[in-house]
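Researcher: Please translate sequence to structure tokens.
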Amino acid sequence: MKRRTLEDVERLIPWATQTNGKRVHDEFRDVSPWFVERSEGCRFQASDGRWFMDFRSALGPIILGHNHPKVNAAVLKQIDNGVVFSLASTLECELAERMVDTLPGVEQVRFLKSGNEANHAAIRLARAFTGRDAIVGCGYHGHGDWFSCGTGDMRDMGFGRSRNGVPEQMDNLVHWLAYGDVAAAERLFEERGAEIAAVIMVPYDWGDNVAHDFVHRLRELTRAHGTVLIHDEVLTGFRLAYGGAREYFGVTPDLTVYAKAIANGYPLAAFCGRSDIMAMLDRVMITTTHAGETLSIAAALATLEALETEDVYHHLEAIGAHWITSFDSACSAHGVPARLVGLPMAPSLHIDAEPAAAAQIRRSLFRGLLKRGIFPSDTWLLTAAHSEDDIDELVAALYESLPEVAEAVA
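Model: Translation complete:
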């Protein structure tokens, strides 16, 4: 295969990738891999031949590990039976039945190919069901028009509002809440509760605040005002727990969106929930040819089987706790004001410094790890393929990198 530089690909593909989170930024161009050739377990091989231990996990879809043998076997078996048909596949019913049987409050399921479009579908259903137009958002939900506009505490995703292709007239239809801000949610419903079709929220944003009170209060407020509660579990689903946020927080939303880890990297998403809301599909046009593509559904069935029967979640908690303790201890010993926060299956980097200094510390830390074969992440997305020995290797690379980081602090 022809070897191309990053500049070669940037001339052909804006960002040199299809996904914002996979961009190689200027501060890492000389140490980061540019492209991936293959992956196995918890590692991938870059186009320049180097191997990296992966802690970004394809931005979340990889939960069992790359190139998982049981998932591969299910996909290879299905290839012999076909990929897409002129009618629905029996596999669609099998996966939907599994989800209905194991996820409380899920009565019906429909499949799509990405969390982005499944979130769009859930918003459309909520508006149709309630006859209302206003949306309240909390977290990142994709690149749709309704996400790229609005008022309130909108999370900065690095893209401005000005001339972003979304009409300004839409701003009064969307309001943004900061995760965990119960008081703001209560004020908003007191002022506009009768207008709000849906609250779409990430039930946990992988930060230090695991806001049980916020998640429960939004369930109470939406129920009291006839508003549809949508949990965007694109990232938390099948990673936070087998039952996702509904299991972890003990809250049942009206609609839920799953993607990423549901099929261990194969492109599949689901929107699901109450049958009376899902019945709006008789009037809301949501249809696409490849939604029932069988290879991804076979992969999902194999993934959910492994997640349900193997000791994945205890393993993620154990290695995550080991990494948090080791990271915090190492940084403290070197005088680096950094720590890991949040739940152990995906702890997040937090740097206790003003923004410019924090950016320099992060840059120095990530550059040091990249030089030592570690592909780091602001949120460390662990997989079942990461072993205790792998975490020990990671910790060793951290200790080798920290003297350089300490110099950046000084």
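Researcher: Any highlights?
Model: Residues 169 and 409 are 46 Å apart (CA to CA).
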